[in-house]
Each structure stands twice: as C-alpha cells, then as structure tokens.
Amino acid sequence: MKPSAEIVKIADKPDLKYVGKNVTRIDAKEKVTAAIKYLDDFEMKGMLHVKLLLSPHANAIVKSIDSKETEAVPGVIKVYTWCNTPEIKYNSAVFYPGQNDLEDEKLFTDHPKYVGDRIAAVVADSEEAAEEGLNRLKVLYEELIPVIDPSEAVKKECETPSGKPLEIHLSCGQFEEIECGTDGLIIVEDEVSTQKIHHAALEPHSCVAYVEPGEIVTILSPCQLIFGVRYIVSKVLNHPLSKVRIIKAPMGGTFGGKQEVILEPICAFIAKDLGRPVKLVLNRKETIISTRTRAATKGKVRTIATGDGRFVGREVDVLTDAGAYMTGSHRVTTAMGKKLFRLYRIPSQTFHGTTVRTNTTPSGACRGYGSPQIHTITEINVDHLAKRLKMDPVELRLKNLVAPFDDDPTGGPSLGNARIIECVNRGAEAFNWKERFSFTPKKGRYKRGVGMACSTHSNGYAGSIYPDFTAMYMRIAEDGSVLVNAGLHELGTGTLTVIAQIVAEVLDVDINKVLVSEGDTLYTPYDVGCVASRVTYVCGSCAKELAEAVLDKFKRLSSIVLEIPYDDLQLANGIVASVSNPAIKLSYGTLIARIGTILQEEVGGYLSYRSVTNPGSYAAHFVEVEVDTLTGLTAITDYLAVHDVGRAINPRMVEGQIYGGVQMGIGMALFEELAYDSRGIPQNASLSRYHVVNAPEMPQVKVMLIEEDEPTGPFGAKSVGEIAAVPVTPAIVNAVNWAIGVSINVLPLTPSRIISALGAL
Amino acid sequence: MSIEAISLMPKNKEELVKCLSHADERTCFAAGCTDLIPSQSYLKGFSAFVDLTHVCNMNLIEIAEDCLVIGATATFADIAKNPYVQSYANALALAASQVGSSQIRNRATIGGNVANASPAADSLPALVSLDATAEVLGCDESSRMIPVMEMIKDINVSVLRPREVIWAFRIPLRPHVRSAFVKVGGRKRVTISRLNLAMSVEVTRNRLKRARIYLGTLGPRPLLADKACQVCENAVLESFPLDLFLDALADKVDEAIPTRPSRAYKRVAVRGLGQDILNLIASWECLH
Amino acid sequence: MVNIEIKINGKIKCIDVNPRMRLIDLLRNLGLTSVKEGCSEGECGTCTVLLDGKAVTSCTVLAFQADGHEVTTVEGLQTNGELDVIQQAFIENDAVQCGFCTPGMIMAVKSLLNENPHPTREDIIVAIEGNLCRCTGYLPIVKAVEQITKESVDLQ
C-alpha cells in the first residue's frame, strides 16, 4: 500500500481539546510534594529486610559457605543460597511462553560468573541486622580466570561445545556480488567500539513481596512488564500465574534498567517461604555492578558507494557483549540488525551479529535497545565516507535516506510516513549547517566543529517474533468520570497523561475526570509492557479505539433511553445533547445513571488490541562542539534535535523526552563507561567515579518536531522516548572528529582518548 | 557488631582541648564528614565522635597581623566567597569554588580536606603555593605550626597525632601577590581532579618574582614545579616565555610519573592548565 | 545514644540518636520520605535538605551534628496547603518526570533562592550541579527557576 498524498491530518482539526496540547502531567503535584511513595518509602507491619551477598570475584567456584555466625546475629531470620532455593534456570528477558532465549540464570549460584553475581541472601527483621549478618557470612572461593574481552570470549566459547555464541544473519540484495574497483566504487571501512553503560536511574533497584490470602504471591515492583515479571516468578516458584500478582510500583526512573526480571523472583520466593512481607533495596554500588547494563559492542562496517555518493552495499558485523548471562542481549543484537535496513536505501546489505558472554555485569535493555550502538557504528562510517568523497555529510545522507512509505527490504513492516528527509532538510536549514560545516579543523587551542547523525527506531514489536497486543477496560461512571483499567507502566515518561489525553479527546470529557490505572496483574488486562517504544503507538491506539467504541455504545444507549435518534445526538463537553432540540441537554453522569436505572447496563467496554503495523520513528540531530585540544575536554556549544514524531500528543512532554535522551547520549559520547580491570573488578561502581551528565554539561537543546501524521498512529502519533537517545552519540563523535581532524571510534571520547588521537596526528 | 560509640560536641576551644586530652586512635574528629561517611570508615573502629562544627571561632576567616587566618572548619562555600580570601589567597578561593558540588561546599571544611591528605585534594596545592602553615592544636592547649606541605605523610595519611586537630591555616600576606588555581577532571564541575595546578607570584610592573607553582595529583604531596618557577623569575607578562613555561610543566609531569599510564595525557593537559593559570594571573587586575 | 534537639520543618524535636546515624536516616525514620537515597556518597543530591537554610546532602551529615540546628525538607515547604513557588514552577515547566530527584532538586533551588533571589542562569546551574537528574536533561528545571526569578523581578 503506497497511499499518503491525501493523508487526513487528524490532529490539525481545530477543535482538538487535549491532543497536541501541553497538558500538565497528572502526577506532577504528588511528585513535587513527595506525596508519591517509592518502594523504599513504603513499610508494612512485620516486614523483613533482605540483603544480597554478591560475588567479589568475576569467575569462581564457591567451595563453602558458613552461615553459623550470621544466623547467630540477633534479628537474622534465615540465610538463602543455591542449596535451599529453586535450581530452575531462567532468562530474565523472557516474558511469554514459547520464547526460547538461553536460560542460564538462577536465583543464587555456586559458580559466580561476574563481580556482583548472587551467592546468598540474608533475611532479617531490620536492615542493620541483615547487613551485619551479611558481614558475618564466611565464604570460601576458588578463583578461576575470567574472560573480560568479548573477542576473547568468542574464541573461548567456540572451543567449548556447551557455550556457543549466538548468531543472527539478516540481508537484502546480493552484497557479495558487488564488484568493486570496476566502476569507481568506493569502499569505506570502520571498526567502532561502544561501551558498557549504567542506566543511572536515580532510584536504585528495589522490590517488595508478600503473600495474600489464597496463596497469592504479591510483588510490588517498579518494573516495565508486570506480566513478564509474573511469568518468570510463576516459573521459578512453580506457582500458578493466576496466583502471582504483580503491582507496578512508583518508578524512580528505569531507562531499561528495570525492564528485565532481577529482584522479583528472589523476593517472591522468600516471602512465600517465610510467609512474611520482605523488602529488598539495592544501594548504588549494588545497582551498578549487579543489575544490567547497556551492552558493549564491537562493530565492523564496510560501505560501498558510487563516486557521487550513492550507497550500493553495506556489510555490518557486530559483536555484542552479553555479560555473564545471556539475558536479553541477543534480542539487542537482533534489534540492531533490523534498524540497518530502515534508514537508508541500500540495495544490498548484510548483517551478521554475534552475542557472547563474558565475566562482566549482564547486559540488557537500555533506552534504544541496540539503536544507540548500531547507529553510532554506522553513522560514524557515513561521515567517514563523506570525508573520503569530500562530500558534505548532509548532502551524502540526503542522497540515500528512505522516503515515506518505503518498504523494509528484508520484508519487515512498512516504514510508514517516514519523514527523515524532512528532518534533515529542515534541521540543516535551521542549524545553518552549510555555513557552519567544515572539512578542515580550525586553528587554535579550542576547536569548534559541527556534526550530525540520523536514526530510526521502532513503534512496538509488530513484525517481530514477539507478541504486541494489549487490552483495556474503559467505563464511564455515574458522575460522568471515566475509568481506564489498563496494565500500563508510568516510568516518568508521562504515559498515564498521554492515555488520558487520548481518552478525554475521544469521549470529549474534562481530562480531570479521566483516571488511567497502572498495571496490576490481578485487576488489569494483559499488556506486553512498557518496552519497544510501543506504549503511545500501541496502547494509545487501543485506548483511542476503545474510547470510540465506548462513545458509540454510550450514544446508542442514550438514544434508547432518551428516545432520540442516534444521529440526532451529539456527545460533547461532557454533555449529551439533541441537535434538533436544543432544550435537551444532559450531563454524561446524569445519562449514565439513567441508562443504569432504565437499561441496567454499564456503559463501558473491553478491547483486546493487536498491533499489526510498525512504522519507523526518525530523528536527525545537529551539534556543535568545542574541543579543548590541551585538556581534551569537549563542550557541547549548540544542539538541535529534529524529530519525526508523526504527531505530538503532548509537545512539552515530547520535548522533555528529547532533552533527557540528548543528556543520555552526551553521557555515552563523552563520559560514561562501566570499566573493568583484567580480573573483572568494576573500576567505577559509584556516581563519584561514574560520571553522568550533570547540569553544567548540558547544552541548551533546541527541538524541532516534524508532525506529518502517521496514518496508523493514534491521532497520527509515533514513538519518541527511545529514539531521542539514539542519534546523539554519533552526532557528537562526528562533530569532534571533524572539529579536530581525527577519527576516534572508541567510546566514550574521554579527554585522554582525545589527547591520544591528537598526539597520533 | 560495630562497637557502641559516644559523641561529643565541644562548643569552644577549651572544651575541644579537653576532648583532645581524652582522645586516642579510636577517636574520630568529624567536621564536614563529606569524605568520612562515603568512605564508610565511620561505621567501624571509632569509639568516640568529636564534632568540630560547633566549636566557636574555629571557622573564622580573618586578617591577623601579617596573615590571613582561615579556621579549619571554614567550609569551602565560606572560603570561596570570602573577599579576604579572594584578594589575598585567590588560588584558595578558586580551589574552594571547584570542590565537589554546592551541597558539598556548604559542608566540607578545609581542615578536613588537608587532614584527609588525598592526592587529588584541591586545597593542598593552593595552600602550599600560598606558603600556608597549619596551626595544629594539641591536648595541652599548645599549638605547633606545620607548613602545609609537611602535613602530608603519605597518600591519605597526615602527620596529625591522635590528640591533635588542625585549628587554622595561616597564609602570609605578601605584597603584590597574585595567585590562581586550575584543575581538570572527567567533566567540567563536580569532578575529582585528574590534575590540578596552583600558583602564587609577586607581580610588580608586570614583572614576576618568587613564583611558587605546585602540581597536585602526581604524588602524595603537591609537587613543586621548580623549572616552571625559574622560567617565571623576572619574566615580564607582556613577553612571557610561554612555551618554555609549558615545556617546564610538561617535563615535571614526565619526571613525576614516568611510568604511569596517565602520563601521556597529563603531560599535554598540564600545558592547558599552564595557559589557563597564566591567563588568570595576567588578567588579575580585570578580575579584582 | 545521644539526645539532640533539632528543629525539623518548624517543629522542635528531642530525639535520641546513635552517633553513627546519618541525618538522612534520622529524617526518613521520622517519615520524611522526600529525602531519598540515591548514591550514599553525596554525589547525586536526592537526599538534599536545608541545614540552617543551606543545601546539604543529608547522607554525608551525622545526625547528632544537627543538634541545635534547623532542618527543612520538602514536607516543610507547603504553607497552609499552598505549594511553594518552586513546586508550582516545577509543575508549570514540566521539570518533573520520574520524580525521584525532584525533592532534592527543589531543596537545592530553595537554598539558592534563600541566598540569592535573582540568580543568573550560571548561578542556577551551579546550585543544582550536585543534583543528578537522568530524565529531564535539567533544562525544564533551569527554566522553572528562571521563571520564578523573572516573576519576582516583575513584581518589584
């Protein structure tokens, strides 16, 4: 299907009340007053505290654990190890039956595979007693040699039949058959390394679990997939899904760090075993070393182009460091490959991805799910090609970028109303790119230069092997207020506000009368979760379609009780009115009560919604940097982020997502790296040693939204939260490379890397 | 279990001296606590905590005779914005303004910074370049005066004995002295120094004399950049031999850390710091 | 144990504390859960409170050191149910996303405005340099403070 010229711009309708408006986020007040209680702020009577014993060694065998002294500490209730907990293996990224990712993780292990691996848990009636008990555990380890470098790990794993690295191939066209050299084709190759990154959500990981009557194991978790947590907990505890209840708890930030199942099965098991509420809150160091990271990658890119800058073929090979367990890392590798075919028109392209385990903190989801890594790898290569061709990098990209409604050459979903060319054109003009871009570095100690990068990201799982459905209940109450029961997860991104805007718009009610729930597996219908940039696009579509159905039902039932023809009724502003008889005007509430009394029926509905489309979201970021060629410090001096969001449901919240994404991307480009020494000991497991972007490093960011409506999105909307973090890093790296005339391809661009690159000139 | 501890809160010098006379290795003298608590050392060992933040006059910043006196519990926030410090010991004011975050500067004290003797401490090269002396208070109410350079025994070890605290620092008031401090870390602000540099110098009619230039982070103590000082001697700002000066600083880095992996970076970065500190010295009149 | 007298959010309290107890623990034990723990080393600022009007990270203060002093947390900001101007400006400028850094951020701004009612952009950035926020990129927060400053100028 290639329509598009006559797309109806739904959101341009002048009478929109909530969509496209800067509605204040609904939880803002409780957050500025600290009325919101995160898990660590939460107490229950008789609650026990859990502390984890984390391995100090990156690869070791536990020869013995002596817990006598621990058990003698007043207040200590019980010590858990692999000896008295389930042996069952699981994969923390799996969220639905039939997903067959490698299952290699257990609650506790006697063979710790990274510094931070879980050896034991001490449960006590106070945090202090648990801590004291932990200090008194006597553990004997036999240290083994760890493997830290993924390239080494590949060699090693290939030697052992049990631990083959996982591989994925994707391709289009015939890359191998491109004959170079004959007709002036140019080949540009690059090797780029991206680093392990700590999510640095300000709230450390936490979990609370207790047992409710009826053997219902209940877990409060600031998580991203309540139903995924339910699935893993049920599996590990061998407890029915119906009796595992996961309640989404207030979330102090995640960025993917709380996407995989980590603390929940431990807390659930202990709560069930002891029959008492338990709480486990990690500190910062524990969160850094023992949860998840952005996967480090090593990428090789070979691009073949014509002399006038048309991409002919590209070959990309990526090695992903899964860390100690496979987790969702191979999904990340796969996701990286898929992005390659959806940004530029490249007739022949092949992707080969390998995921391998090392003795480091496990990798997992992290804002962009592979997109920041793969785009960093390839967008650095595009600028390298521009350098070779002596062609402006913007011009080079414009020759090759995808157009609206292009197909995915690997057979994936249509790219939809892909407006990346517009992003680049309008961004370059606003940024004054042509005047500012320079092939050659300027003179002087402080060198300024500009760079840019493009990227794409998904809108859900449609087209992949993962399910992408959601379901909601929606009911209008007797006072005209609206209740939306949905398995949603507010991560701080404004999900509940966005859904409320959509529902209020369709039903035409005061948004303050719309209540949107977060997920509770006992009471809310199924949702895949807050992953894959799917919530506004998929859940928003469900909410819109369901609201339309509920409105229709309301109108039908109103027509019956008012004895007025359906077509003569108008539902607006919370009022049901007759078009032909202005005297008839009833509030939604009055009419709902009348329907209840007369027809004895609830006005509401349930919708199970399946997403079948998955257009691309697009972005082009433009940046100016100033590099101090003596101290090696890089400052961002100007920033423009241009995003094809289809339609902003809440422009100010979209800007907020972009600011935050740019901040994370700057961190990846310049500061952040979770480093290990050769023994696998994390070198910077604290926020004083692991530098994230603080206020003085943050540039003023200009945001430009391209709003051309995605026909399959709710009110034309597409995703933004993840892609905002994607083009940042390559744009900065490109800017630095142009500014100082180097080609650094190892991240992050620390002062010493910059000085070392300059020294090599 | 960690041992039970008592806490003491002397309100004046006399009460502090009494505390000192009862002190031993297990007594913790606590002021800002911004290093003590993160290190977790407060959890173990100590049997007594003596709070210094309530001792009156211990945080005074004043001119006394020919010295600028800075009380040991003066916070970095106090120091950074104090007009006396800005005029007579600008290196210290600049160092203080770049320690930690605004919250940390509201709490962290100069006495604690010196007593903790971290190689990356920002106040150390500044104090040493200003020829500062620590007034160390003992349990018999006596004081001994120790040049700040000699306060540092080793990495994270000062020469303070168990029954001693730093009472104040004395910085001599020298005519025509200009001073400055610069640092570089992993990011612009709220960062541990990878390298820092402090300088004081007498400037008359744009001619430099008696420069005292110290590099931090290269060893347990600030390191005198002797050749750089020599380059400055009698040099005139308008025709300053900048390259010679920067070469001398780079050579000092090479000499100090010949085998450390960070040498390659620091020998270049020090040139940037050298340029910056000279700019601050040269633009003194505009700034003051 | 040591008995201390401390004014918390305007009310004087006499409390027994262990000399090793940190101020953050004392406050949280009193139910003042606006005081968050994000790093335990004074680096993230989520535990920021006012000690005699100045911002400090309460995870790096021993509780007994607050004897005789005044501590203010976000719980003490509202007067008669009215939000503080900072809270209001944070809401209006979308300076809040996940909300975990928010109380500490607000207290850092409060400290700034106590000392300097008309800060420059640079002053604002230095005031919040010790408060990490991973969601907002700080820009809406700076904007919120600028709005307060501008409004107080307009009033004059």
- Whole-number total of structural domains of chain C: 2
Task: Count all strands of chain C and give the number.
Answer: 5
Mean pLDDT of chain A: 96
Quaternary organisation of the protein chains: heterotrimer
Based on secondary structure, the structural category of chain A is: alpha+beta
Largest sheet of chain C: 5 strands, mixed
Remind me, CATH topology of the largest domain in chain C? Ubiquitin-like (UB roll)
Q: Count of DSSP E strands of chain A?
A: 27
Low-pLDDT parts of chain A are 1-11
Structural class of chain C: alpha+beta
Structural domain count of chain A: 3
Q: What is the name of the CATH class of the largest domain in chain C?
A: Alpha Beta
CATH superfamily of the largest domain in chain C: Beta-grasp domain
The shape of chain A, in one word, is: globular
CATH architecture of the largest domain in chain A: 2-Layer Sandwich
The span between the termini of chain A is 52 Å
- Tell me the span between the first and last alpha carbons of chain C: 50 Å
3D architecture notes:
The complex is a heterotrimer of chains A (761), B (288) and C (156). Chain A is an alpha+beta fold and 761 residues long. Chain A folds into three domains: 10-36 and 463-610, Aldehyde Oxidoreductase, domain 4 (2-Layer Sandwich); 39-145 and 205-281, Aldehyde oxidase/xanthine dehydrogenase, a/b hammerhead (Aldehyde Oxidoreductase, domain 3, Alpha-Beta Complex), CATH 3.90.1170.50; 293-459 and 613-759, Aldehyde Oxidoreductase, domain 4 (2-Layer Sandwich). Chain A has a seven-stranded mixed beta sheet with strand order 3-4-1-11-8-9-10, with helices on both faces. A five-stranded mixed beta sheet of chain A has the order 6-15-14-13-7, sandwiched between helices. In chain A, strands 17-25-26-27 form a four-stranded mixed beta sheet, sandwiched between helices. In chain A, a hairpin with a 5-residue loop joins strand 18 and strand 19. Chain A is globular, with a radius of gyration of 27 Å. Chain B has 288 residues and is α+β, with helices and mostly antiparallel strands. Chain B is 34% helix and 25% strand. Chain B has helices at residues 13-22, 76-81, 83-88, 90-97, 102-105, 110-116, 123-129, 148-151, 226-232, 242-256, 263-282, 284-287; strands spanning 6-8, 27-30, 48-51, 61-64, 67-71, 133-137, 143-147, 152-154, 157-158, 165-172, 177-184, 195-204, 207-216, 223-224. The model of chain B has no long low-confidence stretch (mean pLDDT 95). Chain C has 156 residues and is an alpha+beta fold. Chain C has two domains: 2-76, Ubiquitin-like (UB roll) (Roll), CATH 3.10.20.30; 85-155, [2Fe-2S]-binding domain (DNA polymerase, domain 1, Orthogonal Bundle), CATH 1.10.150.120. Chain C contains five helices and five strands; from the N terminus they run E-E-H-E-E-E-H-H-H-H. Chain C has helices at residues 23-29, 85-92, 102-115, 121-127, 139-155; strands spanning 2-8, 11-17, 48-51, 54-57, 70-72. In chain C, strands 2-1-5-3-4 form a five-stranded mixed beta sheet, with helices on one face. In chain C, strand 1 (2-8) and strand 2 form a beta hairpin. The mean pLDDT of chain C is 96. At the B-C interface, helix 5 of B face strand 4 and helix 3 of C.
